[in-house]
Structure formats: structure tokens, C-alpha cells
């Protein structure tokens, strides 16, 4: 018999998070605890308000899903039938909790259960949010050991922001335009960004503008990655030719199983893969990190942007993701003592 508990946690952002779409200081996420025979599987949902999700709707969806759960070891085949339409963050949290529980039942880390070599984990980028050039410079100095920086753009001050960053570091940069550009303005921006040592650009145009994206990609000197244009594996074939790669996020796609299908479909279309995240604690970030050895670029820094992370899991050493060796996700509450090896 599997029982579900859930609670909200409030994550405090180190810096007010500014995007082309707005700003915020705190984020609420929902933690799931799935218990069976004395073992507890943990999952986390970071609901996305753009898609009309919040912690209350995620909690209702998780309760509905839990009623149909039989064995965590049979979840992969049951996942699509227990999911609640529209509640993708809840689906991702349930998927994580089930994977955690399955790994704990079998006594192996999730990466081992999935046949993934943790030594192949990539470096992760560290996001610098939109701000005044002075604050951006300060944030870059705080970014310490991270070898790659991701700069959020999509305002009139894009040039000043990037010049401020380049003034204090020569590290590789990735740019996320968050749908903030137009086709007319994008080409010259891309040429300029290439000259500034930027290695890729995420979602330059609004999600629906696929024809414009095809045209932009023909002219672009830099690889272009889809984020807001892609949710699940079924979205990928129509993006081939419009983007060079995709950004997979567990909260967009519904969990590790779908994320693996997305990696396979993207590869089949000759596309590159980035693994991204929302603002999440180390619980959900660690779940995504278990897949990171399979991708080209990791942008798993949601837990690094908060001051009160309630969990400990994946760490970063020399800029590279280091997966925890405990069973399942290998995540524990920050207050608990470390596991004995
Ligand atoms: Mg993005």
C-alpha cells in the first residue's frame, strides 16, 4: 500500500528574479512523500503559473494520481494513464517520487537503475538574471566556480548587460532571450553575440513563430535552442530545421521517463539537448541531474539561486555536476546527517 503526503515549501531567491515577463522574490514548490513499507520516495513540483498551475492544483492532481498507483516498479508503464491533464509539474513530482522509491527499494542510485554513467555529468551554467549593468557585474563576480554563465536577455538594455558581463569575465556565455526578440532585430543581435563569445541562444522568438525561426536559423551564426516552443517528445519533429537543439525541463515534460524519450527523439532528428530547470530546490534539481550525463548542456542551477534550500543532493565541483551516491535520488533533508558510505 502506497500512501502520499504533501506540503508546500517557500524558496527565497537570493536576487529578485527579473525576466522579460516579470519579477519575483519567492517561489512556492510542493513536496511529495510517497511511503511504502517504511521507505519514502521524494518528489517536488514547481508549478508554472503561465500554464495555470499552482501548489493547490498540483496537490489535488498528486492525490488523484496516488489513488491509481500500485507498485513503483511498474510506474513507467502506468505513468501516462495516471497523469492529470494540465498538471505537468505534479506529474513530474510524482514521477520523481516513484523513481526515488524504486531506487530505494532496490538499494541503488537512480543513475544506476537507468544505466547512466555519473562520471559523464557535464558542467552546469549559472544564470545571471536581468538587472542594471552594475548589479549584473556584481552577480558575475558571485558566480565563482561556474565555468559557463547564462545571461537572461530580452530588454532594451541587452547590449549594456552583456558588455557589463564581458567587462568582468571571459567565461563562455549562453544567452536566453525568453521569446523577447523579433525576426527583424534578431539577426544583427546574433552576429554581435557571436563576436562577444556567446556559444548558443535560447528561444529568441515567441513560441508560436516557427516559420520565422526557420528563417532566423538559416541566417544565424549561433546554435538556437527551443525552450518555450517545446514541452514533450511529440513536439520535437516539427522543431527540426527551426532549432538546433531543445531545452528539456522536468516541469514542462512531466518527468524522467518523458525526458528520456525527448532525448531519444531529439537525437533521432540530429538535434542537441540541454537540460534546464525552473526555480526548484535541490530535490527536483537532483532528479534532473541524474539524466545530465546523457545531454550536451546542463543548466541546472535553480537550487543555486535560492538562500534556504531545504534539501541536499547534487553538488557542483569545478563547475561540473556531481551526483550523490545514495539509493534513489540520493537526496536528503538539509537537517539530516549525511548517509554513511
Ligand atoms: Mg529559457
Blueprint of the fold:
Blueprint: E1 3-19, E2 22-36, E3 39-45, H1 55-66, H2 75-82, H3 88-106, H4 110-113, E4 125-128, H5 133-142, E5 148-152, H6 158-168, E6 173-176, H7 183-195, E7 198-202, H8 210-219, E8 224-226, H9 236-239, E9 245-248, H10 250-253, H11 256-268, E10 272-275, H12 282-289, E11 297-298, E12 311-312, E13 315-317, E14 320-322, E15 332-333
Parallel strand pairs: 4-5, 5-6, 6-7, 7-8, 8-9, 9-10, 10-11
Antiparallel strand pairs: 1-2, 2-3, 12-15, 13-14
Helix pairs in contact: 1-3, 5-6
Order of helices and strands: EEEHHHHEHEHEHEHEHEHHEHEEEEE
* Major sheet strand order: 4-5-6-7-8-9-10-11
* Rg measurement, Å: 19 Å
CATH superfamily of the largest domain: Enolase-like C-terminal domain
Walkthrough of the structure:
By secondary structure, the protein is an alpha/beta fold. It has two domains: 3-111, Enolase-like, N-terminal domain (Enolase-like, domain 1, 2-Layer Sandwich), CATH 3.30.390.10; 113-333, Enolase-like C-terminal domain (TIM Barrel). The chain is 34% helix and 23% strand. It contains twelve helices and 15 strands. It has helices at residues 55-66, 75-82, 88-106, 110-113, 133-142, 158-168, 183-195, 210-219, 236-239, 250-253, 256-268, 282-289, and strands at residues 3-19, 22-36, 39-45, 125-128, 148-152, 173-176, 198-202, 224-226, 245-248, 272-275, 297-298, 311-312, 315-317, 320-322, 332-333. An eight-stranded parallel sheet has the order 4-5-6-7-8-9-10-11. It has a three-stranded antiparallel sheet with strand order 1-2-3. Strand 8 (224-226), helix 9 and strand 9 form a beta-alpha-beta unit. Helix 5 (133-142) runs parallel beside helix 6. The protein is globular and about 60 Å long. The two termini are 30 Å apart. The relative contact order is 0.15. Magnesium ion (MG) binds next to loops.
